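User: quick one
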Amino acid sequence: MIKDVYACNADTCPIANDAPFRRARKTGEIGGPGGGCRSAELANSSLASREQAISGWIEPPHVNLPGRALPIDRGPVHRVTMALLSDSLFNPTEEHQMLRQMVADFAVREVDPQAAEHDEKGVLNVELFRRVGELGLLGITIPEEHGGAGMDALAAVIVHHELSKYDPGFCLAYLAHSMLFVNNFYHCANEDQRGRYLPKVLSGEWVAGMGMTEPGAGTDVLGMTTTAVRNGDHYVLNGTKTYITNGCEGFCFLVYAKVEGQVTAFIVDRECPGFSTSNHIDKLGMRGSTMSELIFEDCKVPVANLLGAEGSGVTHMMRNLEIERLTLAAMSVGIAERCVEIMVRYGQDRKAFRTPINRFGQIQRYIGEGYAQTQAAKCLVYNVARDIGPNIRNRVGSDAAKLFAAPVGKQVADYAMQVMGGAGYCREFPVERLWRDAKLLEIGGGTIEAHQKNLTKDLTRALGQSAS
Amino acid sequence: MKILVTVKRIPDPDESLKFAGGGLDTSSSKWVPNAFDEYAVETALRLAEVAGKRDRLAEVIVMSICPAKQRQHVTQFLAMGADRGVVVDADDSELDTIAVSKAIAAVAKSEGVDLTIVGKLSQDNEGNQVAQRVAGLLNVPQAGFAATVKWDKNAGTLDVGREVDDGVEHKLVPLPAVVSVDLRVVLPTSIKNGVTADSHKYQEGPRLASLRGITMAKRKKVKVLKLSDIGVSSAGSEQVVAVAPPPARPSGQIVGSVEELHEKLAKEAKVL
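Assistant: Done. Structure below.
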């Protein structure tokens, strides 16, 4: 059946083996020794395929096993030993290991099957977003006493890494909510504000985001023109924020505006009069999340929604940009790692001139360099993650991680597409989507040019000769 | 009510096997929980909980026989929602089925459990003996290969549905009892505990641990016992002589005609 649809050998084609094709193939085509599945319900069930794999009716699928090592990692013993040692970098504690396993399982079971559909429609899967809340992932960095999980930046990296293997667009909505809003909000909010907003944003009932970029202020963020003027028990905001992830579905936003020229943070929600959002801004990739403008027209924001003190916005912004950049870098690692998996399998199974294409040096270059770049980015990101936290400033680390990792996702996705040729360019397969998604990481959360600027400034301050 | 669920760690069945010294070489294996034990824990949790509420109708204890320091799988099941753990500190690869069954029966007895749930088999050696032996040792009823379980609290019975070749067989077993579970027990409506609405649909498959479960897991109580504490000897009655890979499959032949095929089947393969 699948052979007709995908015009490939379903037993060997890495893409036909890829979920969700894998499921259709295994349940539809292959039965077990006991006559196969007993009912239509089971024939359509992923459990049926799992049973086949378990009881050895067919060869277990060799792709995308949640949390499993890449087949290329399953080589000789010395390789495995190396993986075990480096595991202390990627999974420093048993909790991190269990978190990775849980997110990887979740990504394969629930995120992957919906990714292509929501990419095509360009909408956020709000129902799945609430499911992320049920699993407790929306407050990953928030202390337990406030309803979060109390985990560190490295745990946040694990979640972004694993989700982005299957749906970077959905992961971006997760990032905008849990890093840009929740993590930032928690650290600058008072107890009253935490009590009013945290329960509903941690459950996912309210989708949230953050408003920083303006039509006239991007990398030069401090040139923002949105203003806030105090008037009795409220502030009056005027201005526009643009390219705001979760703008369409979001209920509340952390917004930066200038009070007498000083950048100040506020929470603005849908109940503030004068606040509105534009239509969805359509985009190339990351289409599993939405983007819109936030528009403030004499918008009345209660004084109780001022975050921290007037003029303290830059501090909040700079502190939070670090974990934002780190997790964006982790998304790039996820994209790259998935693309390596895909091209390795494709290179093994696809034949040209009667030879598997991985015998050709041209293909080997893509696979070899793609893997090496991915590993380099992964090691850098996880190493920097150890030194990011609410009480540590590490702009050099987070800028370096994103500056290096962002182009790797794009490059390795491009390699995978080149290895796959026409198949890689087609919408049937995930590589073209990952390729489109990857580009954002060179732009969002700081362009690579912004990272170069920051690094030069910070490194000159740290290492340069002091002016005499 | 107390439910004991047995869980085992096994070498990742998706990894290729390595052989050394007349046996399997698991020195570099990744260890994972046995899938059927995941189904067993899911069964116990569905029986114990009231969907959507915090109330619990039973305590779920996970038990494993493994080296005490290699009990990550037990932690994983605690993260999934089990209440506490019992670890029998022993090298399970040295124990045969009867020693394992005796250890389980001893723990079931000392904990005073009402129900023991086990996976129908472990994916490594596919023995499928533990449930039956434990029921025998405890002298309680057993129901194997459960596809559905319905708990009647007032009567103190379980109605266990088993998919057999010609349909679904139902066994009504009084508690205490031993149940082994098959794959279909984790379909959305396979378990009914009489309190959660019968129409409630669980997500298919064993549940994912929540992040809260993961952070709480290490704080849950795990009792570590030695075999000698529960009066079980590791000396068994079975012995593994050797484990070897099956012979490699010979390459196929392309025959030129039906006649040639017929001749080869008759003379070479001798199947005609």
